[in-house]
Amino acid sequence: MFSMHPISFDRWPDSWRLSNGDVELVIPTRIGPRVMRYGFAGEQNLFKIFPPDPANPRIRGGHRLWVAPERLETTWIDDDLPVSVEPLEDGLLRVTKPVERQTGLEKQMLVRLAPSGSTVEVIHRVRNCNPWTVEFAPWALTQMAPGGLAITGFPPRGTHPENLLPTNPLVMWAYTDFSDPRWKWTRKHLILKQDPSAAQPLKVGLFNPDTWAAYLLGSHLFLKRSTADPARAYPDFGCSFETYTNHLMLELETLGPLSRVAPGEAVEHVEHWSLRADVHLPELTDEALESLLK
């Protein structure tokens, strides 16, 4: 039974709940646009929710929309103003943030839940409301609850000397440490463990035309996908995917291409989400991971 109605959720009394009986999402109206809950109906929230912190109010958790490249003055913008929420049809909700005074950008999410099952489409839209052209890329970040395992894939592998040209970048930050035991590398996959006892943050980025990332928390698997264009320029030395972790959470991030956006124009970046239950991963091998993700 599909439902879309206002509820009180956590510290946000004016939120919207979308559910088809199989899964549910919660979207607050006092901040955003953010999705603060995604999980099977009545079961664990796969997304991290941070407790209130007056010293750092922008740290809230959930799924949010930023713009890249990352700059304090244009990326780290508070989303503490009320958003407009418009139910457009069964399963589709449009969430719009007021134009940011710091950037002149309007951020919007269109969240569409399938009539049954776990499939969700999230359209991230950023409109340039300035009287001048602005260059940026939409950046979709999902903060996952602690204690899980993140998985992503490389572009298709090949052999030497048949494949002589490089296939994708693997991007480091100054604090990236590949000797950290939270990493696991296979020929086709990159795995990163979220460890609440690990003090140092980690981050890595890559490009994959078929960008995807999964997060296994207990026996529930979250999967998100997006499509990247090899002919376009992407932020951060060409990343369509980035993952970051610290002792509190793990982040799965997809990015759109860099675009010069004219006044009044908008760019979109689309993710597709799904959930699976009763998932078990006996070993971290390519064969086990491919079987898990079929």
Proportion of residues in β-strands: over 45%
- Label the CATH architecture: Distorted Sandwich
Largest sheet: 10 strands, antiparallel
* Largest sheet: spatial strand order: 7-8-9-10-22-18-17-12-15-14
Succession of helices and strands:
EEEEEEEEEEEEEEEEEEHEEEEH
Portion in helices: under 10%
Named CATH topology: Beta-galactosidase, Chain A, domain 5
**Radius of gyration in whole Å, from Cα?**
19 Å
Mean pLDDT: 96
Write out key terms for the chains shown.
single chain, 294 residues, mainly beta, Beta-galactosidase, Chain A, domain 5, 10-stranded antiparallel β-sheet
Walkthrough of the structure:
By secondary structure, the chain is mainly beta. The protein has a single domain (3-292), classed as Beta-galactosidase, Chain A, domain 5 (Distorted Sandwich). It has helices spanning 235-238, 286-292, and strands at residues 3-9, 12-19, 23-28, 34-35, 37-40, 63-68, 84-89, 92-96, 105-113, 120-128, 134-144, 149-153, 170-172, 183-185, 189-193, 202-206, 210-217, 220-227, 241-245, 250-255, 259-261, 266-276. The strands form 3 sheets. A 10-stranded antiparallel beta sheet has the order 7-8-9-10-22-18-17-12-15-14, with no helix packed on it. Strands 4, 6, 11, 13, 16, 19, 20 and 21 form an 8-stranded antiparallel beta sheet that branches. The longest helix is centred in the C-terminal third of the chain and has 7 residues, at 286-292.
Task: Present the secondary structure layout.
Blueprint: E1 3-9, E2 12-19, E3 23-28, E4 34-35, E5 37-40, E6 63-68, E7 84-89, E8 92-96, E9 105-113, E10 120-128, E11 134-144, E12 149-153, E13 170-172, E14 183-185, E15 189-193, E16 202-206, E17 210-217, E18 220-227, H1 235-238, E19 241-245, E20 250-255, E21 259-261, E22 266-276, H2 286-292
Antiparallel strand pairs: 1-2, 2-3, 3-5, 4-6, 6-11, 7-8, 8-9, 9-10, 10-22, 11-20, 11-21, 12-15, 12-17, 13-16, 14-15, 16-19, 17-18, 18-22, 19-20
